[in-house]
Amino acid sequence: MKYQRLVMIFSFLLLLSACSQAPLKGQIEKVGLLVPDTINDQVWGTKGYKGLLNIQSTFGVDVYYKEGMVDKEKIVDAIEEFHKKGVNLIIGHGSEYSEIFNLISEDYPKTQFITVNGNKPQADNVANVTFKGEAMGFFGGMTAAHMSKTKKIGILATYDWQSEVDGFIKGAKYQDEHVQVLAEFVENWDDADKAVELYQKLKKQGVDVVYPAGDGYNIPVIEQIKADNLSAIGYVTDQSNLGSHTVLTSTVQHVDKAYSIIAKKFNEGKLNEQGEYSFDFKEGVIEMGKFSSTIDRAFLKDIESDIATYKKTGKLPNEK
């Protein structure tokens, strides 16, 4: 009897252990990711793919991805292919999927569509994820203005509506009202040649710190900045590995973490009807990357305090 009792207890403990390691089961069946370019760009696409893998390991589901998804017909074909495989959560890794998801979602009522930085969802099964860019731009602008020797800094963004553009300018002016901020716009997320050309234009005007706020071209631009012995603010990922003396800091977006949060809500049936989710420093989705050792400790202490205050109050230093 004693032996049988020990066997039962041991079996029960094994069962508890197995349950604690079991994947989270819920509404997610399989997940598909559409990427406009590649998952190997080490910036935007790689972040999305990492998020997909996080979902796979957390929920124990099959996942699929498609690269180079920019043509509408190919996107529609990919959605149908995902559907046939049993995918019921599709993530369009970019704003370019917003319009087509809103149009096609009614044909797949049991599928949840997720877009990033897209338009307001027009259907119950479409949700949109946005990343607040003003604060990260603000702290990037503060850093750039503080470290500039020429008192001329530049932002090389894709479009003027990017909230990090306004934030960068405000942060720079808050740090030093005498600093001059020059802005150039690539008008294309992936046009590295034009971005480098515009950077050269900024350099000729005396800019010594540049914030290339575009994931498709910021690495080539930073490499050129490094060759010119100037300074940069990284974008989307912590880009200190491109040169600790070149990259003063980075404005980091943890897209992968945002996807995990959204997947968890969907899995639990808790996506709200409005379908819009915004992420910032408070959620830990956005943060500043590693600061360069060239930055003085007094400034680091001040900006770290400002960031901590923003997380608690939602107010930037110029709004206190």
TrEMBL record:
UniProt-listed InterPro entries: BMP_lipoprotein, Peripla_BP_I, PnrA-like
User: Which interval of the chain is the signal sequence?
Assistant: 1-22
- Cross-referenced Gene3D superfamilies, in alphabetical order? 3.40.50.2300
UniProt cross-references to PROSITE patterns, sorted A to Z: PROKAR_LIPOPROTEIN
**Entry-linked Pfam families:** Bmp
Localisation = Cell membrane
Q: Where is the ABC transporter substrate-binding protein PnrA-like domain?
A: 28-319
Q: How does it sit in the membrane?
A: Lipid-anchor
Q: Which UniProt keywords apply?
A: Cell membrane, Lipoprotein, Membrane, Signal
**GO CC terms:** plasma membrane
- Matching PANTHER family: ABC TRANSPORTER GUANOSINE-BINDING PROTEIN NUPN (PTHR34296:SF2), TRANSCRIPTIONAL ACTIVATOR PROTEIN MED (PTHR34296)
- Record protein name field: Transcriptional regulator
